[in-house]
Write a structure and sequence with these properties.
Two copies of one chain form a homodimer.
Chain A lengths: L21 H23 L2 H8 L3 H8 L2 H29 L6 H14 L4 H11 L6 H26 L5 H20 L3 H5 L9 H17 L5
Chain lengths: 227, 227
């Protein structure tokens, strides 16, 4: 599966160069791989299963994506880059507007894109894949997370620093890390809220949950530094 | 491996009933299993490897623990119950003392025990195993978490409710879930803080990190409800 020089799959071979329908096949493979990696993890997912899910040949997956780490990387980056782009667009929109913006606005701009993933099957598969990253080989998981998340985090922290000049940079970064921990946990584990409360609380509508995290974390961000 | 009626292992067979040194062997197997499950996950861990690590026979593991799910359960509950016990003891000590206690005191009582796990090899293995739980079969992971964490969470939320009477119970539970998300993330992913900040911040000494989480979350808990 790591043979980058594999010849193109037999289907559509009559046309040299880029096969017809490449975009559709690529997306179908990425969708199927996203579901399969989310379900079985990196090690447990096989090209056989992904090929069957996507209704393509295993050779076609190898042709388009190469080895399994390469495929995983494409799956992760496809949605990760979209997430990063949405976050940056919302942050830039805040900075571009005439009205002043608040700590709450900035946190909301960070949270809205990942919560949007809940509404689609593929988005939910990505969230599960993301929650499983801890169990994947570190050298793979760490690099991908850095590539997707670190630049937006720095941009958001820089904007927050302007609103919270009383906080040293290291404290602000550690507060931002707490926001990341919150949303990853809430998104990966929605039903824990009703479990821990024995049904006294539940995961509310997405907008309400975002508003509650914004209220909690904005107050936390404004707190005096404990240091 | 799921044969509960397996005969005792050949070693120390001269003594009927409980083998000599049972406590030591049990603990050695649990320690080795904790490391192996943390490293390889439930599916990837084998009795062969655990037996070699613990310097016992595979038959002895089966004799003491039965099937692999049973062993995983014992590994998880050993440290999970200790954590729950420490939390409850700290909470009860707060309630028993003469001086009034604050939201900060309650949050600290919840956080100190898991941060204590960082100081031992076995504790760190448990934290990694815990972080991997998302990748384990739901029916196993969910039941174990419920058994270990839910009763303490309810006790802590009940005490917090007395200090924060302005908050509806469901909001308070969702705020507490955010605290859980924070500490699980910070403990499982300490180096992310220096990654996201490009070295501008790092995981500080345990006491400082606890103080920072307490300051952040106590302010969050006191915030007006967004609902």
């Amino acid at each position: 599966m790591s043979d980058d020089s594999a010849s193109p799959p037999p289907v559509r071979r009559s046309r040299p160069g880029r096969p017809e329908g490449r975009g559709n096949h690529r997306e179908a493979v990425l969708d199927a791989a996203e579901r399969t990696f989310a379900e079985r993890g990196f090690a447990g997912a096989s090209y056989r299963e992904i090929a069957a899910e996507a209704a393509v040949t295993q050779a076609m997956i190898t042709y388009y994506f190469g080895s399994k780490p390469d495929l995983f990387r494409e799956v992760y980056l496809r949605r990760g880059r979209q997430l990063a782009g949405e976050r940056m667009a919302l942050l830039e929109a805040l900075q571009a507007r005439e009205a002043p913006f608040s700590v709450e606005d900035v946190v909301r701009a960070y949270l809205v894109p990942p919560f949007g993933l809940v509404t689609s099957t593929g988005g939910r598969a990505f969230l599960r894949l993301q929650a499983r990253l801890h169990a994947e080989p570190d050298e793979m998981a760490f690099g991908l997370r850095r590539e997707v998340y670190d630049a937006p985090v720095r941009a958001f922290v820089t904007v927050l620093a302007g609103l919270l000049p009383h906080l040293p940079a290291d404290v602000l970064y550690r507060r931002f890390a707490q926001i990341i921990g919150i949303y990853l946990y809430i998104l990966s584990d929605a039903h824990r809220i009703s479990e821990i409360s024995a049904g006294a609380a539940a995961m509310p509508a997405t907008e309400t949950m975002i508003a509650e995290i914004v209220a909690f974390t904005a107050a936390g961000l404004r707190a005096q530094s404990a240091a």
